[in-house]
Design a protein that fits this description.
globular, alpha/beta, single chain, 6-stranded antiparallel beta barrel, about 550 residues, 5-stranded parallel β-sheet, about 35% helix
């Protein structure tokens, strides 16, 4: 008796699904991954289609290869992106698992839409991004590459402004011939035990690392997994190993706690920032303009989150916001940036005691644990050294040359600490958040980030091991015309930080960085090496695998 006969005999009504035998066959398959938000997919589709046409022509004219698109166009929604995980899985089920696959990225995308399909795909994978400010596929590529690293799937990366330069063509040649692209990532130096042994930095780092393992640093997270960032969700065992256990919190509770904040306290909070010179660009139409009511809601969120931070004894706190709260309340960014600064409205707890006066409350934007880890490390280190301890993440948004020097454009969605801005609170601008992403608005904390030295870091994980990249750089206050050009080319409503990274080129960072996010903290020039080396040893003491970024970096304090 055959399989079907046996099955029907035992289970008469059985209907076992079968794997599709006919799958999309092509020399090269392309997939367009997109946002979860319909408004973003619609607005961004013309750009994606333009780069799709460019790639199609290159493949046909240079290689004689007909590029085949795997996912369908949504007529009703007016875009051709994969818009959810189920669609991504269905798309991959119809693709030859051994076919060479290009993921074309010209916008922000939700990595989890296609992550499972990519992990199970056997053929070579190329993440191909445009390098542009307004439509930053490079941001999406960096996140998807980091997410695949977290899931243990290798891939190749390639980026280009127009898909016609020599770097792009050579990379595409290599991938089509060999199935992979080799980028030089030797700017990352693995740090072995004993680094900076006998130095002041090593003593400080080891003592603080031991303290953190002994006392623990709790990471409070209002709902995990923001905007498809697989690499932002770390295994609980990995966090516990390094002394940073998770306090899982619910955004539903945050909303309930916000409702307990009286109107008078909300008004006091807003007035605090108005009195200190913040330029809120208020209007009357909440659909398109910033209103006082929106900021008052943000003040309630700020107060409620600070009270929860104290209640649960957290070191840092993060609010998911997208997608869960975007249709309920204005953006969380003002609350997060304001909490993250030492010059903060005096927030009383339920008993009237002021919460953490004179100290920042580290806020983990987009609940990205890969930035939460270095934020906690840096805040503990800098505070212990008596230095300003404000931290933030930025997107690696774009970059271009000015007077012969390449400057990165680091940009975050409106929540930098005031102390990171030129002029502090008085230099801050409150813009309405872009409607495409934030339908209910809310204020940003925007402006030009100040000049100065900084330390940067990023954590990721491989299996259960936590890795930390550490480097240094310099922020510049570019001339007004150049700053405005870059602001207009990215998102004008958001704060912008123009930087160079020490001994790390543009293409090296694009090849080796494991996220679209990068964590930064300003540090004094004369103490930068001590802070950097202490951070390295702190990480090592916690059991983190640390990598120094920069070809010429070396320990200046190794001698006893």
């Amino acid at each position: 008796m055959g399989y079907q006969e046996q099955l029907q005999a035992v289970f008469p009504t059985a209907n076992i699904p079968a794997v599709e035998s006919e799958r999309l066959q092509a020399d090269v398959v392309m997939i367009n991954n997109g946002d979860l938000r319909l408004s973003a997919n619609r607005q961004c589709w013309p750009v994606q289609r333009d780069y799709e046409d460019r790639l199609t022509h290159v493949m046909q004219d240079r290689y004689g290869i007909g590029l085949v698109k795997a996912n369908r166009f949504h007529d009703a929604d007016e875009h051709g992106f994969v818009a959810c995980q189920a669609e991504g899985n269905n798309t991959f089920s119809s693709i030859d698992p051994d076919a060479p696959l290009i993921v074309l990225l010209t916008v922000w995308q939700y990595s989890h839409h296609i992550a499972a399909g990519l992990v199970h795909h056997r053929g070579p994978i190329l993440l191909l991004a445009n390098f542009a400010g307004t439509w930053p596929g490079l941001v999406g590529m960096l996140n998807l590459a980091g997410s695949l690293t977290a899931l243990g799937r290798s891939c190749s990366r390639l980026w280009s402004a127009d898909f016609d330069d020599e770097f792009f063509l050579q990379g595409l040649d290599q991938w089509l011939q060999a199935g992979e692209i080799h980028h030089d990532t030797s700017y990352l130096q693995a740090i072995e035990p004993g680094y900076a042994s006998g130095s002041l930095a090593a003593e400080v780092g080891e003592q603080l690392g031991k303290y953190m393992l002994h006392k623990k640093e709790i990471m409070g997270i209002y709902d995990m997994f923001c905007m498809g960032m697989v690499n932002g969700v770390f295994p609980l065992k990995s966090l516990v190993r390094i002394g940073m256990p998770l306090e899982p919190m619910s955004q539903s509770q945050l909303l309930a706690d916000m409702q307990q904040v009286p109107q008078s306290l909300r008004e006091e909070c807003l007035q605090y920032y108005i009195d200190r010179g913040m330029d809120f660009r208020f209007g009357e139409n909440p659909e398109d303009e910033l209103t006082r009511e929106q900021v008052l809601e943000q003040c309630a969120m700020m107060i409620a989150a600070a009270r929860a931070w104290k209640k649960f004894g957290c070191t840092a706190i993060g609010i998911q916001y997208q997608q869960g709260l975007k249709d309920c309340y204005p953006a969380s960014d003002f609350a997060e940036g304001a909490l993250n600064d030492s010059d903060r409205f005096p927030i009383p707890d339920e008993n009237g005691d002021i919460i953490a006066p004179g100290n920042p409350i580290p806020c983990i934007n987009e609940v990205d644990m890969g930035t939460g880890i270095p934020q906690i490390l840096l805040c503990r280190l800098l505070d212990s050294l008596g230095l300003p301890s404000e931290t933030t993440l930025h997107d690696i948004r774009w970059g271009s040359e000015f007077e012969g020097t390449f400057y990165w454009d680091f940009e975050v969605s409106g929540n930098v600490p005031f102390s990171h801005l030129k002029g502090g609170i008085a230099g801050a601008i409150g813009n309405r958040q872009p409607k495409m992403y934030f339908p209910l608005g809310g204020s940003t904390i925007s402006g030009q980030c100040k000049a100065g030295r900084f330390i940067w870091a990023r954590a990721h994980y491989e299996n259960l091991d936590v890795h930390l990249h550490v480097g240094t750089g310099t922020a510049y206050e570019l001339p007004p015309e150049e700053f405005q050009r870059r602001l207009d080319a990215t998102t004008p409503e958001w704060p912008l930080m123009n930087v160079t990274l020490d001994n790390v080129t543009r293409d090296e960072l694009m090849a080796g960085h494991q996220s679209n996010h990068i964590t930064i903290a300003y540090i004094p020039e004369e103490q930068a090496d001590v802070v950097r080396d202490a951070l390295v040893v702190m990480g090592q003491t916690l059991g983190i695998r640390v990598w120094l970024a920069g070809r010429q970096l070396h320990c200046l304090l190794c001698a006893p």
